[in-house]
Design a protein that fits this description.
Order of helices and strands: HEEEEEH
Strand content: 25-35%
Shape: globular
Number of strands: 5
Largest sheet: 5 strands, antiparallel
Helix content: 25-40%
Mean pLDDT: 94
Number of helices: 2
């Protein structure tokens, strides 16, 4: 299942490209959590998918339709990546930047 590690590595790179000031911490038994004035998102690996969960996903626009999981919650939204899925880096970067903007707005 090498693809899960490769997918998570690609996600990490995209997060850092989208927000050079992002802080990454590993919590919850090895789950990366990305912060910028609050949690932006997490990256979790499961047997059949890699999940990218946005802490404020319900408040974010989703014009590219990236969110495909955890859609019924009041706050969180997620993207599940399965083996062979292509990552739309441009749309994902825009979503990450929007999450950062939401965290930093007051």
């Amino acid at each position: 299942m090498i693809w899960r590690g490769e997918t998570l590595a690609r996600i990490r790179k995209i997060v850092k490209q989208a927000d050079p000031d992002v802080v990454e911490k590993w919590k919850y038994r090895g789950v990366p959590v990305w912060y910028h004035d609050g949690i932006i998102c997490t990256g979790e690996t499961y047997q059949d998918h890699v999940k990218m969960t946005f802490a404020t996903g319900a408040s974010l626009d989703n014009p590219s339709g990236l969110f495909n999981a955890t859609l019924k919650g009041n706050t969180w939204r997620a993207i599940d990546f399965h083996e062979g899925d292509k990552i739309n880096a441009k749309a994902l970067k825009a979503l990450i930047r929007e999450a950062v903007d939401l965290n930093t707005s007051d």
